[in-house]
Model the fold of this input.
Amino acid sequence: MIIGRLRGEVAAIGADTVLIDVNGVGYVAQAGSRLLSRLDPGQRAELHIETKITENSITLYAFETDEARAWFARLQDVPGVGGKAAMALLDALTPGELMDAIALGDVASVTRAKGVGKKLAERIVGELAGKAPPMGRFGSFGVKAAPGLVSAAGAPAGGARAEAISALQNLGYGPTDAARAVAAAAKANEGADTPALIKAALKELMPS
Done:
């Protein structure tokens, strides 16, 4: 059984775990400090879950958005990146910031994650550069939380970036050039939606 989402009451919070009660069943999930800081015992919450099954254990990893969960899974495609390192990366960088760092070859930003040194950061950037951002389990990140639950509101931070990259590729630009242009546009136009990012990214791609 793969658990993809849990909705219930926060029963307890540990140093790096959260216990969430779902209809009388308590689930323990690993979580980053960014998410844990937003939760309080007794609060209702909706958590996106990545389930990791090994021969000896089943581990749940909790995230505030499905986009963060998708990046957690993608990061572990990189040799040498396990669950602990992937969680640290997403604790230090939002999905949007991670996308920008990879697109711009910004190794220094990746090393902000606890336990991620320069060599591993270079491998992460090198392995993921030019690849399309991960998608949700069902092709998008459109699942919204029910009213009154702690969860991210609105579109995912990297959603507009991913859509803009895809649009530029449809116009004939290569994935690496498209990602770099969108990353540069996002830095200069914080909070821009997809159309605005595409317009700004096209300016980045135009010969000066």
Notes: The longest strand covers residues 44-53.
